[in-house]
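As the work plan foresaw, the team has encoded backbone shapes as discrete tokens. One protein thus recorded appears below exactly as we store it.

:::
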Amino acid sequence: MVKVAIVVLADTESHGDLGRVANALELAKELKQAGDSVELIFDGAGTKWVPGLADPSHKAHPLFKEVREKVRGACAFCAGAFGATAGVKAADTKLLGEFEGHPSLRRLLVDGYQIVTF
């Protein structure tokens, strides 16, 4: 079993950004189906994805729904910086701020997780 933390940093501005978040969700799905340990974190501009993906009308919602239980949360500091805090909370997603308002990536490394960014 592998341990992987997927960090979504992609913005929501372009078709390429949608491709990156779709690839992150696909990796989470593959790891989940293999029985691996996976955590999905939205960080930086990626925090803006949470409310959109949680919306059933979003084209990537079905994939997001498949891996929803693997979402660890979104960066508290970055959600504020990118105006996504209310949307993250409305999507019932935890705000992470273990290290100076950001998720602790070090904790993941100490716990043996490989970190993959999109």
Remarks:
- The chain has one domain: 3-117.
- The mean pLDDT is 98.
- Helices lie at 15-33, 49-54, 61-67, 76-81, 85-90, 105-110.
- Residues 15-33 form the longest helix (19 residues).
